Amino acid sequence: MDDRVLQSPTMRPSISESVSRDIRVTPKRWNTVNYRARFDDPYALKNSLQEQDRLIAQHYLLRTAFKGDFSAPIRQILEKGVVVLDVGCGPGTWTMEMSTLFPRSTFIGIDIHENYPKQVKPKNCHFRKCNAVGDQLPFPDNSIGFVFQRDLNWGLQASDWTRLIKEYHRVLKPGGWIELVEPDIETQQSSVKERTLYDKIIHVLSCRSQDPFVSRRLSSILATSGFRRVESRFQSLPLGWSGDIGNAYAHCYQQQLQALNGLIGSSTLEDAIPTILEEWKEFHAYINWHSAVAQKPWTTRRQDATYDFL
Predict the structure, then answer these.
(1) CA nearest 184: which of 210, 214, 206?
(2) Higher confidence at residue 30 or residue 188?
(3) Predicted confidence (pLDDT) at residue 28 exceeds the cutoff of 90
(4) Which residues, including other chains, have CB under 8 Å from residue 39's CB and lie 6 or more apart?
(5) CA neighbor of 278 nearest in space, from 244, 239, 236, 249
(6) Euclidean distance between CA atoms 208 and 254, whole angstroms
(7) How far apart are CA 157 and CA 4, in angstroms?
(8) In this predicted model, what pLDDT tens digit does every residue of 204-263 receive, in sequence order?
(9) How far apart are CA 111 and CA 127, in angstroms?
(10) CA 252 to CA 43: how far, in whole Å?
(11) How many CA atoms within 13 Å lie on the side-chain side of 154?
């Protein structure tokens, strides 16, 4: 593995039109959550039932786009058995599926909201409420084999990134791996009307001290935080075109925009969305999702930490 971007972020999508049967526009919920409108919540999107359903649908779309649940070279490690930390696990879709696929490994999902399953889950799957950016992660040094974080930038301030990555470095075992996956805020091939909407979203996020452009700096953040073997890649998801996956992602992304109405105003979205849906198809718009993978350097001490934190 080397430090390189595999292709230009402005290239057209190359996703096959054959979509995995696992993709569902309206997936079955694993649990329910009461809607809470919280303007003081660090998470920019509404914490609602619809948002949890959207995250589940998005999981299957991303799994199809990236051709798997992870990009890090850790399959043999997972099959042998390792502790995996899923930060910002949301409804726990990724955590649950991975714990089923790799029964010898232990999976721990943490999130500030308790939207994850509490009873029906594999024996090697654990969830706990945790504010990853507010406190030190509740795990010993050198205790985790793989850290996975996806689509968490909506809940992070720009200043949180450096501290959080340092925490990941602390809890990871020497030789352990980390994977960060985040989307661009703006679409590619967008119209003038759509760019006006994204300018407003970017302005609001910036006023909340969030970083709307962090997705393209994931690899540099990892490299400057002491990680090695950094590799970045991305996949482009079409919006409303290129077959079933484009239609499914357009529905998913429309729901995401609607989940922002508490920040940018429902009238703004109601005026923009009908036009935008048609323009996505006309201009072949798409969203780039970026993935960065890196390894914590080996040291002379390779002993395992005890797992008394479960």
Answers:
(1) 214
(2) 188
(3) no
(4) 262
(5) 239
(6) 22
(7) 26
(8) 999 999 999 999 999 999 999 999 999 999 999 999 999 999 999 999 999 999 888 878
(9) 8
(10) 18
(11) 22
HEC profile of 6-21: CCCCCCCCCCCCCCCC
Report the predicted TM-score, pTM, of the whole model to 2 decimal places. 0.84
Q: Are 45 and 154 in contact (CB under 8 A)?
A: yes
**Region 68-77: what's the mean pLDDT?**
98
Tokens of 22: 């696992």
Residue 257 near residue 205 (C-beta atoms within 8 A): no
Q: Where do runs of H (alpha helix) occur along the chain? A: 49-65, 75-80, 93-101, 160-171, 192-207, 218-224, 244-258, 261-264, 266-283
Residues 25-64 as b or e (16 or more Cβ within 10 Å = b):
bebeebeebeeeeeeeebbbbbbbeebbbbbbbbbbbbbb
For 155, the token pair is 């809940």
Cβ-contact 77, 5 below 8 angstroms: no
- pLDDT of 1 above 80: no
- Model confidence pLDDT, tens digit, residues 233-243: 999 999 999 99
Identity of the amino acid at 33: V
3-state helix vs strand vs coil in the chain, percent to 5: 35, 20, 45
pLDDT digits (tens, 9 = 90+) for 34-65: 333 334 556 677 778 889 999 999 999 999 99
d(C-alpha 248, C-alpha 26), whole Å: 10
